[in-house]
Amino acid sequence: MFSKSCEYGLQAMLYIAMNASEDRNVGLREIAVNQGIPVHFLSKILQMLVKSKLLNSVKGPNGGFTLRRKPEETNLLDVVASIDGLDLFERCGIGLKLCSDNHPCPVHHKFKFLRESIRDTLCKENLSDLVFDMQEGKSYVALKNKP
Q1: What is the model's pLDDT at position 146?
Q2: CATH code for the domain in which residue 21 is found
């Protein structure tokens, strides 16, 4: 559903939310190694997130990335929008250019319901909720939590 860039961006944001703090930036290589993401590819994704004002970037020996906003203020739709954009939630499910509510394709109404449901979920879920669920053992992702 999302591009590989977006999937990696979501994983990186979650990793940073779990590992960054006021006195600790999370390095590019740390994220790449622990998430199994190619460094060069991840670098481009993180710069998109910096440009979208979701991350702070600090250069130097203690440099790295931190969230620009509190985890509870960053929902998953923010990340998706900054990497893939939002036209995913507007375009036709089978790719027709003239599909609309007034001129629906055969799957228009079913896809519209699914798109709205996914968008709503991404709006409601924030980084803080996901980190909390993992810490409580309610969910699992293959993130290595490095102090």
Answers
A1: 46
A2: 1.10.10.10
